[in-house]
Amino acid sequence: MFEFEQAAVEELLTNDDQFRRLFDKHRNLNAQIDEANAGNTAMDHSELGVLKKEKLMLRDRMQAMIQAHAPDN
């Protein structure tokens, strides 16, 4: 995730509490989704769908923050 913006991500993780919270929550959701997909956690398709949508929403919010942080903005 965000491979091409690694420097901006690292700076935001260090200096922006909101970005860090979003990043941590995204990572947590990703782990929950991986566990459900691997069959290690009982979860129906609708619950899994909600988690995936939330994860995508967080990614979009982080991407917007990265874009706003870009030097050319």
Please identify the structural class as seen in this structure. mainly alpha
Overall average residue pLDDT? 91
H and E order: HHH
Question: Alpha-carbon distance between the termini?
Answer: 21 Å
Poorly predicted regions are: none
Strand fraction band? under 5%
Summed up, the helix count is: 3
Secondary structure blueprint with pairings:
Elements: H1 6-15, H2 17-37, H3 45-69
Helix pairs in contact: 1-2, 2-3
Give a written overview of the molecule.
- The protein is mainly alpha-helical and 73 residues long.
- Helices cover 77% and strands 0% of the residues.
- The longest helix is centred in the C-terminal third of the chain and has 25 residues, at 45-69.
- It is elongated and about 45 Å long.
Short description:
This protein has about 70 residues and is mostly helical. It is built from three helices and no strands.
Keywords:
73 residues, mainly alpha, 77% helix, 0% strand
